[in-house]
Amino acid sequence: MGTPAALPLDGLLHVFSFLEAPDLLRAAQVDKVWNEAAEYAFLWRRLSLSRWTFCNISQASKGAQTWKQYYLHRSQLEHQMARGRPSQDFTCKAISGHEGKIDGMAYLSAIEHRFDGQEKSVVCTVSADCTVRAWNVQEGTQIWSSSVQPAPLRSLLTVPEHQLVITRDEQGTIKVWDGQTGKEQATFITHSTWCNLVLCGVPENPFLTVAITEGVLYTLTVPCLKEVSRVTAFQNCHIDLLLCSPDKNWLLVGSTETPDVLAEVFHRDSLTRPSEDKPLSNSLPVGECRNASWAPREAARLIVLHEDRTTRNLSVTTFDIASKRSKNKVEILAQQVASFILPESSRMPHILESHGSDIILLGCGSGMTIFSITGNLLASFQDHHQTITSIWVDSFRVVTSSQDISLRVYTWKREKNTVVLKSCYHLLGGSHRWSSGFTDVACDNVSIVAVETRKCGKSILKAYFFNL
């Protein structure tokens, strides 16, 4: 019987394809032949894709050892982010510059894993001081600031693929900015005191949909902000729910302030390719809509928090949205997948987020509860002492911000074919003497950034970036 070293290369690779990373690393130490076999890119590519599903393949496939480096670096980063030891695993910086309250924040850098020594997180903010600014998270420095605008800026979107920033002010003016220089590129005026913005369409050809107080939806080209369509969704109704599905084909439009108005689902094409016919839409068969979220791992799965029209109980209903073609028409179908009534122990949720295809996260006061879409209580956390102000959810972690001036970091773990959420550690902000708490939080794959509001009326950024 021959020794394992006598196996041909194809045989070694076949055996190695069943190994996990620690065993593959040990096998590489046996001899030169095993070392060369254990370096093959497809082995590490398989491990990476089986663990994370989505990887930055364009960056990772350029060399035979790139997939191995990707796997080891990302594993190390996840270990640090789950452990969260100050100074050892991450560095904290306070970033200041705005003269007013920060009302919006978003990453301009792509939220992806890169381990080529060029990792840089860029965050953009808008403020009541009438400026939009870009910040280098790792250096804690301002990259650029716009000139002072005529009115306070209230929200923003970023388009990392095109390095664009889109803002709206409290007078209804929409502007597009060059994300690298801060130069103004286009303006669209709605004359509305309130607007909501969302991006739809494919990344190569995005569109901006703007909902205004009067119940009107504008769809604009990006970056030129040329009007493509104008649709009245509701008559004189404040639209405060405007969400685009993961496949960018569906828009949820609703009002939480008007009980008798049913939430509507619009197909993207009817807004971006207008015709003389009425835009393709359909009302959701639920009562008063309180909040909603699209499930990130499904093309068009919509989770809705609403009040049951018959029992007046607070319920969560999940729909799969699709279109159906018949002879001469197309209709939108909202097929109910699951529904359940929230238990009385769950106070009125003020935040609704989702994970994967079937996990719901609810922020209720200072606590967070996790349900399946069928209503099974999966977990309940009471890690904060004051109200949770925002919940960030991605495929690896959950981060909550709170008025108690702390962030709580959780990580998703797979146990016995089930995904569970583990509470890990706190990231602390400033002093109660100066601070009113965190109001928002966002993450990329190497940093966490939160907005901390000061009692003087100004806001700063607290950046926590992990040591690679």
From TrEMBL:
Keywords: Repeat, WD repeat. The keyword Protease does not apply. The keyword Membrane does not apply. Residues 1-47 form the F-box domain. PANTHER family: F-BOX_WD REPEAT-CONTAINING PROTEIN 12 (PTHR44019:SF17), WD REPEAT-CONTAINING PROTEIN 55 (PTHR44019). This is F-box domain-containing protein.
